[in-house]
From TrEMBL:
Residue ranges of every copy of the ABC transporter domain listed in the record: 19-263
Protein's name in the database: ABC transporter ATP-binding protein
Lipid biosynthesis as UniProt keyword: no
Keyword field: ATP-binding, Nucleotide-binding, Transport
Family affiliation: Belongs to the ABC transporter superfamily.
GO biological process, one term: peptide transport
Highest taxon of source: Bacteria
A Pfam family per the record: oligo_HPY
Keyword Nucleotide-binding: yes
Length: 353
């Protein structure tokens, strides 16, 4: 984590959620009779109006699949997604209307921009797809200006290859803003940018939240990014959220061993980095017990045994963490050793599988 975090809005309650997920599962069929890969395997999540939530985890944990499912790009195997109080539609016509309100910002601006289209055409594409009835030129200019490309007319006839990486990412953001969405889903929005430009894009997202009331789900493996932009953080491992809460609480006093390991490798972290053994388990062969136990430094070091939960770690599956903004953790050891002060079982937020 780098500097003091930007001032944030207080976390919102479930009752005021813009987007709500309950029991979401996404499985991909295996080849030649192999078991299905459980990419998302039981997730509850809420995003409040005007709230930024960071979804954090290493590659392969299911966070991008979850994000794409929230936009209707990947069909869920089970569970429920609700947007503004209504279930996520399934028909093509209804999904088209929904995507005016929820927009995706991709990781690689070079790959998501058509090199043969001018900046004007890139930004105007969404308006044309959705049959915008107003003044197209004005809408494109306003979107570019909001994304920090000023004066906007100067960029109309440029092509992506004529822009810097930061400018290309701003064009991608402008293409999302032109439809005046209520929710942005940003998948690694600064991963491909130089360090000097990342802060500018993060500041832009915070400004858009303040000026437009936008909500955002920011998918990232970078805990420093989560610290600087998010109100809440949800840590994902092997298809499930294993810890969630206010970003300051989770990232300064992490309770789950996986969160602790992720934080330990940051340059500012005290002590020696925690090196996890092996790769994340195969989502088509989820082991019994806690999903993290085969790599858990707490179990390997004997601390879980001393707390009397080692057997539970190996054999008893943890429940799905519920949505909302309460601090929650899916870890037998954390629940035994580090109960959330003053919250009791409500903070754990358990819900049957």
């Amino acid at each position: 984590m780098t500097s003091t975090p930007t001032t944030r809005n207080p976390p919102t309650s479930t009752a005021s959620s813009l987007l709500s997920v309950e029991g979401l599962r996404v499985a991909f069929p295996g080849r030649r009779g192999a078991p299905a890969a459980r990419a998302v395997d039981g997730v509850d999540l809420d995003i409040g109006r005007g709230e930024i939530v960071a979804l954090v985890g290493e590659s392969g944990c299911g966070k991008t699949t979850l994000a794409r499912c929230l936009l209707g790009l990947v069909p869920p195997t089970a569970g429920r997604v609700t947007f503004d109080g209504a279930p996520l539609p399934r028909s093509a016509r209804a999904l088209k209307a929904y995507r005016r309100r929820a927009q995706l910002v991709l990781q690689d601006p070079s790959g998501s921009l058509n090199p043969r289209h001018t900046v004007y055409d890139v930004v105007a594409e969404g308006l044309r797809i959705h049959g915008h009835a107003g003044d197209e030129r004005t809408a494109v200019a306003e979107a570019l200006s909001r994304a920090g490309l000023r004066p906007p007319e100067r960029f109309f006839l440029r092509y992506p290859h004529e822009l810097s990486g930061g400018q290309r990412q701003r064009v991608v953001i402008a293409g999302a803003l032109v439809l005046e969405p209520e929710l942005l889903v940003a998948d690694e929005p600064v991963a491909s940018l130089d360090a000097s430009v990342r802060g500018e894009i993060l500041a832009l997202l915070l400004r858009l939240r303040t000026e437009l009331g936008l909500s955002a789900l920011v998918v990232t493996h970078d805990l420093g990014l989560a610290w600087n932009i998010a109100d809440r953080v949800a840590v994902m491992y092997l298809g499930r959220i294993v810890e969630t809460g206010a970003v300051e609480q989770v990232l300064t006093a992490p309770r789950h061993p996986y969160t602790q390991a992720l934080l330990s490798v940051l340059p500012e972290a005290p002590g020696a980095p925690v090196v996890l053994s092996g790769e994340p388990p195969d989502p088509s062969h989820v082991t019994a017990g806690c999903r993290f136990h085969v790599r858990c430094q707490i179990l390997a070091g004997g601390e879980a045994e001393r707390a009397g939960v080692a057997d539970a770690c190996r054999h008893r599956e943890l429940e799905i963490l519920r949505g909302g903004d309460a601090a929650q953790v899916a870890c037998h050891w954390a629940r035994a050793e580090q109960p959330a002060a003053g919250t009791g079982d409500a903070a754990v937020g358990r819900r049957p599988n």
